[in-house]
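assembly run, all chains below
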Amino acid sequence: MVSETRPALRVDVRRPQRADARRNFDALLAAARDAFSTKGTEASLEDIARQAGVGIGTLYRNFPTRQDLVRAVYLGEIEELCLAAEDAADLPPWEALFTWLRRFVAYAATKRAIYESLNREAAEFSEAREAMYAAGTPLFERAQEAGEARKDVSFDDMLRMVSGLTAAGFVDDEQRERVLRIALDGVRARAAD
Amino acid sequence: MVSETRPALRVDVRRPQRADARRNFDALLAAARDAFSTKGTEASLEDIARQAGVGIGTLYRNFPTRQDLVRAVYLGEIEELCLAAEDAADLPPWEALFTWLRRFVAYAATKRAIYESLNREAAEFSEAREAMYAAGTPLFERAQEAGEARKDVSFDDMLRMVSGLTAAGFVDDEQRERVLRIALDGVRARAAD
DNA sequence: ACTATAGCGGAGGGATGCCTCCGCTTGCAA
DNA sequence: TTGCAAGCGGAGGCATCCCTCCGCTATAGT
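ok done. output:
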C-alpha cells in the first residue's frame, strides 16, 4: 500500500530494461497517443509502429493486444489529469473547477480514448477512471459548497457533458472555449437557487 | 422563389422505378441509417447490404460511392429536422427551441453523420446544412427576442454544443435529458442579463 | 402467356489490417 | 573483447473490406 508522495497510478506498465528497448517503448507510446487522438482507438497498429520507427513485432512484444496499448496511453493521460487537479486546488473554487475542466478538454491526446472509455466496462479502466473521479470530485464539491455550482447536478453529469464537448467539432479554439463556458454556465448556481 | 407547401429538399435521390427495386432501395436506406447511427459512417458496406437482405452489387448500383449513401441518409434526416422545426413553431419560444433540440438529439439515426458533416466541406452537405440552419434559426431568434436566450450566444454555438452532447455517451436516457437541460440552462438568459 | 430488359447477387481480385514466428542484431556484463 | 540473451523487424497467413463484372431472375408492358 503506501500512497507515495504522489499516488501516480501504475503507469509503469512494465517498462523494458535495455536502453534501446526503452526508447522504442516510449516512441510507441508517443505515436499511439498521437494516432489515438486523431483517429480514435481503431487507428492502424501498423501505422503506429511505422510512425514510431519500429517494426510491428516490437509493438506486439510491448503491447500484446490493442487494449494493452490503449490502456497504457489512457493511464498516462489520467495521471496527467490527476496531477492537474492537485495543481488547480489552490485557486478559488469555481476557477479551480473550470481550470481543471479546461485541461480536461485541452489535453488532446486521449480525447477520444477517454471518451470511449467512459463507457467501457473493462475493470482495468474503471480503476483508473475512479482515480480521475477521485481527483476531480473535490474540486466540484468545493464549488458546490461555495454556492457556485448547482447541487442538483452530479460530477458525472458534468464530466460527461464536458467530454461530449471535447469530442465535438468546432470552428476554432475560441468557439470551443466559448461553448465550454456556456455549457458550464448551466452548471453554475443561479441567483434563484 | 417557390417554397412549396413544404420545402422538402430533394431527398428523392433517384428512387428506382420497379417495385422490387424500390423495396431494396428502401431497405438499404433503413439499414444504412441504422448502421451509421451505431458505428459511424465508416460502417461496413457489406454488413449494410447483408442487413438489408440484398447483394452487395445492389447496394453499389443504388449508391455508387459510400458518400452517396451517407448523403442520402443525411438528407432524409435533415428533412425530418426541418419538419420538426415547423411543428414546434406553435409552442412558446423557449419550449419550441427545447423541443426541437430534443428532437435533434433523439433522432438517433444520423447522430454521427450529422455531427461529422457539421465540419465536412463537401458542397452537397453545406446546402442541406443551410436548410437545417434556416429551419432552426427562427426558433432560436424568437427565444432571444423573448428574452429567454442569451444574446451573446450564436445558433451555431448552441447547435455544436448540442451535437457534442448527442455524440457523448450517457448512462441512460434520463441522464442524457438531464445533461441536455443543464447545458441549455447555460444558453438561457439570466436574471442579471 | 411472352419477352425484353431492369434489376439482382455474389464470386473474385486487390488492398489493408491483424498477429505470429523466427532468424538476425546489439546492448551489456564479465 | 567477447558471448549471449534480450530485443528487433518484417515476411507471410488469415481475415475483412472495397468494388467490379457478368450470368441469372423476375417484373411489367403487350
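The interface with chain A takes residues 115-116, 118-119, 150, 153, 156-158, 160-161, 163-171, 175, 178-179, 181-188, 190-192 of chain B (CB under 8 Å).

The CA atoms of residues 150 and 187 of chain B lie 6 Å apart.

not gonna interpret more than that til we talk
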